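Data deposition worksheet. Section B asks for the primary sequence of the deposited chain exactly as it was used as input, without tags or linkers unless they were present during the calculation. Section C holds the resulting structure in token form. Section D is free text for depositor observations; keep each observation to a single sentence. Incomplete worksheets are returned to the depositor.
Section A, Depositor: J.P.
Section B:
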Amino acid sequence: MSSPVPAVFAVPVIIFVVAVVLGRRALLNSTAIDRLLNRALAWTALSLILLERGIAPRFGSLLHQLSMGATMLGIASLFGAALLWADAAPRLAARRQRFFDLAAAASALLILIVGTPYRRAGTLLGQDSSWQEFVVSAVMWIPLIAVGTLVWRAGLRELRGGEVTRYERVVFTALLATPFIASASLASSIARHTGHWQADDPQLTRWAAPNFGTVFVLAAMLAVPLIEVLSARTGWNRAGRHCRRLRPLWRDLTAAVPEIVLPTTGSAPPDARLLRMTVEIRDALMQLHRYLPADHPTELGPPSTARYARQLRQAIAARRNGAAPAAAPREADRFGAPSSDIDSDIRRLLDLARVWRGRETHTTTTDITDFAAKPSLGG
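Section C:
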């Protein structure tokens, strides 16, 4: 008894799903919805493994029925997560989930009871259009349709809300497409029962292929937040990349004006580090504005950013050499003046950090000496 899906396709999908399960259990297992989704994915991963009957052909019929039982337990967890997503009463979630799990276990037991003649004959439940197949199809598809309905309602509600990101729109659209992938086996079963399709399918590929496709799409969607968490922890998300680009500028400015450095307590996530670096850079710029040359431009286009960076280096040297600051800071320019939009500030500072690392921002010793010798920088 061979497997319904070739190993060259099945094994990578199974490895991917198991990896997502293990990753989410380690990093995304704090909320009730995450725990239910992780349980659902774990049960469906087991279902895929059991569908690969080539690992024990002698017990292929039993493995096939156990696979359907594992699918039922996965559906129970998905149903609980879908209800929470649809704003069902969270205080009743634990009691509600116990009922779903018991119903799923009873359904798995019913599949084994109904499938007893098939196990004895060494055949697969569902190979013929029997009443047993009808019962099992009803047991599996009634809760699946219920889950799909909840997902559709919640997904459409989010999409119509108008406050979804491009990533969320892609995820919700893929989620809405998942029931269509899963319904392929239902359509084939209906066609067989009504006599409209009598194609030979001894390995029940019509059940296994949609199952693999559905689980893969579900795992891919659940892998996205896992990748975001991993990238944040390793510093490879957007905030982490910005921190690395700002670090040379931040290091030089905070070394010049150490009193503006905020106290830290342990390690912080990239978003918090980026906010802190942005605030400290802006504070340092405001302090260094007292030491800027008198010919510092008030409007900086792209060509003048490098000139501003060079003069900031002069201001650092002047402060370090003990030059007297101006009586009041100059009129704040676009880099020093905080705005109400933190994203705009970050973009401007990234532009400054880009030229800060360039060779064109370095001044000569004569420039620094002449500038540092000035008694004051008012005006």
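Section D:
The mean pLDDT is 79.
The chain is about 70% helix and 0% strand.
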